[in-house]
């Protein structure tokens, strides 16, 4: 948990022989810490196995849709060789979405006054 806090990570991808085996979230770690045998647990016991992944070409809309449908907060991202290339979080997607909306607002294509 200290590593996650120092690096400001909230998710870790667990790899096994070069393949994505699972994802561990900060919530998974906090839940594991509540167990009496938490020091004895290994990654495979607390991770979400076989996580839903997206490709580098997956749209922001589709990624958000997947996260909402499956109640998850991150998605491993794979390249065309199906290797891990990154991890996208709900926060990352919302930040990008806001940049795009801000661009539309400055172009006059959309009006956000009702949000203020």
Topology:
Layout: H1 2-7, E1 11-16, E2 19-25, H2 26-33, H3 43-46, E3 48-49, E4 54-55, H4 60-70, E5 74-78, E6 84-89, H5 90-107
Helix pairs in contact: 4-5
Description:
This protein is of the alpha+beta class. The protein has 2 domains: 51 residues, CBS-domain (Roll); 65 residues, CBS-domain (Roll), CATH 3.10.580. Helix content is 41%, strand content 24%. A hairpin with a 2-residue loop joins strand 1 and strand 2. This is CBS domain-containing protein. Keywords: CBS domain. It holds the Pfam family CBS. InterPro entries: CBS_dom, CBS_dom_sf, Diverse_CBS-Domain.
Rg for CA atoms? 17 Å
Low-confidence stretches: none
Mass-distribution shape: globular
What percentage of amino acids are in beta strands? 15-25%
Largest sheet: 3 strands, antiparallel
Strand segment count: 6
CATH fold-level label of the largest domain: CBS-domain
Mean pLDDT: 84
Give the end-to-end Cα distance, rounded to a whole number of Å: 37 Å
| CATH structural class of the largest domain | Alpha Beta
Could you say how many structural domains there are in total?
2
Could you estimate the helical fraction of the residues in percent? 40-55%
What order do the helices and strands follow?
HEEHHEEHEEH
């Amino acid at each position: 948990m200290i590593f996650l806090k120092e690096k400001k990570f909230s998710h870790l991808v667990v790899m096994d022989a070069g393949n994505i085996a699972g994802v561990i979230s900060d919530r998974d770690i906090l839940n594991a810490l509540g167990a009496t045998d938490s020091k004895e647990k290994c990654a495979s016991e607390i991770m979400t196995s076989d996580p839903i992944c997206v490709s580098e070409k997956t749209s922001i809309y589709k990624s958000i849709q997947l996260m909402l449908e499956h109640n998850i907060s991150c998605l491993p991202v794979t390249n065309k060789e199906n290797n891990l290339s990154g991890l996208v979080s709900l926060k990352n997607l919302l930040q990008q979405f806001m940049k795009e909306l801000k661009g539309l607002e400055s172009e006059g294509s959309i009006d956000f006054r009702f949000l203020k």
